[in-house]
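Marked as duplicate of an earlier ticket. Keeping the data here for the record.
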Amino acid sequence: MAYQSINPYTGELIESFDTATDDEVRCAITKADEAFQSWKETSFAKRAEILANIARILRERHTDYARILTTDMGKLIGEAEAEVELTAKMLDYYVEHGEEELQPRTIHVEGFPDGKVKLDYEPLGVLYMVEPWNFPYYQIVRVAAPQLIAGNTLLLKHASNVPRSAVAFEKLFKEAGLPDGVFTNLFASHDQNELILADPRVKGVALTGSEGAGAAIASTAGKYLKKSTLELGGSDPFIILEDANLDKAVNWAVIGRHWNGGQVCVSSKRIIVVDSLYDEFLEKYRAGVAKLRMGDPLDPSTTLAPLSTQSAVDILDKQVKEAIKHGAHAERLGDPVPQTGAFYQPTILTGITPDNPAYTTEMFGPVSSIYRVKDEAEAIKVANGTPFGLGGSVFTEDSARAWDVSRKITTGMMFINHPTGVKADIPFGGVNRSGYGHELIDLGIHEFLNIKVIAEPRIDDAF
């Protein structure tokens, strides 16, 4: 596979990188394992100091790092700046809380004196990270921050279209003081996944990506009895009930569906509106989407980014045509797409029935699937009528009702009067085909640790 940075707005090939050889992969594993022997003995204070340095450098050169994101995968420059800050905040969290989360925990066991049975947390060793292109920095740090503070070492296989982002972070980690071999960017091929996971020194794998990639990695990890965590796709419901603040719901729906060009696992992909508000919502939503301005993502006035690649445009177009073929109505909105760039015309799909492939397909891009439902009960049924289960939203002015509806939606996250969002200090995870290995900000630090029981019985106890 080719690792290439191609600017999705200009089509310019910025830089390409050779795929690693098998010998280079084995060498990287050896270096990571050797580094682990000393990194696991490094003090929490020293690990935290390095993570703090990473956050500091990110903030000092935030514009430089943001521009790499924009030219690698097309993210609006303002959203790229926000990702840099979010990444720094996640590092801040583990600098402040990492050590306390990893303190031994006392448990009470009959027959043992209090305080003589403990759970101790030990790092496992080399971990393999397989990460996607839509949040190139955040996805690295979501795994790296907790695992580095915990004492594990890491091999990164990033998406093939964001290699400059991967290289930038490897250099950043080294500049911040991370010892050689603790974090290694590896331009591995898909075929080398098995080579990596078969190595006994590699103890686990974390993947964020498509269902197909997740199934392949989980299958290989299972073959070699390696622990894996997966965060896969989503088709988040965005429910608007009859007592919602409609203007707020419309504004958030436009943002929730179109941020990052609509290329977010937790985008508000399925907008579900009760009958009494449907017509008014659709009119206002059309107007909001039509105002989006496509153009150069480095221009702060641009409000809708290009997709990450031309192939992403082609896939989305094929999905929309398939939806129309099965009876959906498509409405194109806004100015025509620019003559340059991997843009897709903002589109609204209505009339999607359960037998339409669009009913259970995740669409990555500015395509809104809007459903008209009779009432709250039908809204919940439609919301749960998908194999995914990542996030979701419910809009209502009744707080108790919002909490009740949220509990009835089968997802890992629900947001009230807000689209599903990503923050550095709240739980993140999903169920069903959206993955497993729920990455809570605190529990995520325990994902790849040996939780060891240490017990000291009384001398006179007989077993």
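See parent ticket for discussion. The mean pLDDT is 94.
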